[in-house]
Amino acid sequence: MAGLVALCLLTAATMFLGYANKLRCTGPEFNEWGRSEPAYQERSYGEVCYSDIQNLWIGRDIDRHTFPYVHGGIDEDGSLYGGVVEYPVLSGLVIWLGALFVETDAGFLAASALLMAPFGLAVAWWLGRLSGWRALLWALGPPLVLYAFHNWDLPAVACSVAAVFVVHRWTSVPLRRRALLGAVLLGVGFAFKIYPGLFVIPLALHVLTSGSRRFDVKGALQVVGVAAVTVLVANLPFALAGFRGWLASFQFQSDRRIDLSTNSIWYWGFRAYTGSDEFQAVMGVVSPVLMLLSFALACRLGWRRYVRTGRYPWIQVSAAMLCGFLLLHKVHSPQYTLWLLPFFVLVSVRWEWIAAYLLADAAMGISIFRWLYLSMEGEPSGIHDGFTAQALMIGVWGRAALLVGLFAAFLAARSPVDDDERAEVRELRTA
């Protein structure tokens, strides 16, 4: 217990450093819209203290305390209006709550941090219970400083880790029931940030293959069904209250063009073509198709491991699927590293992989804003003009190469909960 408390205190200290970093961009003055002055944009890029939370205070009617989705929509040029934000409904609700009693972007950042910090602490507690000292990777990880309050990702991360926790630590409850609760949590996570929904299929395959003599088809279908119903329940009130605004958030992401703001390999690899409508149309098909193929490959390789070992490695498959998503999706925002960080705790990949990825991510996460600052100021920012652009390319392409390697490394690695899983399978097969 003392170790878990210490872990949470370390996590709180790390998140405080993350908040303090973002706080440098706020104030000391504010204009009539509550935007920090002076030179907000230049400071946020040049001093590497930018956050989507502070930035989106203006432009989504957040500063007007408009309840999300109900009254808004999307214009022909792709602009959102009337309280619509480009995130799923539960994130929209958190955003609205964070803005409810504040009048400046600084207040919004502070309130949002207070709302999300408990989720970061819960992740630390659950990871500590699941993996012991490896949870220090979360508590002391540089991504928690860089991104804890960059966007609204901590609730979704908490849902993913909570799903693993209930499946592998509530052993007094039958596996199918634990998996159904895990499916609910993943469905809730989908309603925060989509990506936890990826893990429903590996969880269903885990349930499918955990029967004593035959496949548990009913249990697997229930896992998928419960997750789908959870997503429906979370979204239905918003869809009924304002269908156009609710749909606009999904349409925004579907129609989003590959540009500098997406920060993916598709932008950095094909910058010369991103202004072409034909390129955008092609990538609108290529990117999701490649993602689906990577998901199918991860599930297939997980099945091969099940045939060899008698256990479907759903945590490892989930981690590999996330690698495919991060690599191949047309958007790769810096804070997505928070999604991957718990899997470094839950799957025992070699430390060299972890250190290399965190270094590449830090290189990208810091240099991208310095590079934007140089570009904004009209300073030389080419690859031959200084270390900023070089570090950015090291980060972008180093991270991409490491995601390919981690896809395979996750699938080949064991999990710290493996011993418990083997005992669980033996128990099921002797029941």
From TrEMBL:
Keywords: Membrane, Transmembrane, Transmembrane helix. The chain crosses the membrane at residues 80-101, 108-127, 147-167, 179-208, 220-247, 281-303, 315-332, 394-413. InterPro entries: UCP010361. The keyword Membrane applies. This is Integral membrane protein. It comes from Saccharopolyspora erythraea. The lineage of its organism: Bacteria, Bacillati, Actinomycetota, Actinomycetes, Pseudonocardiales.
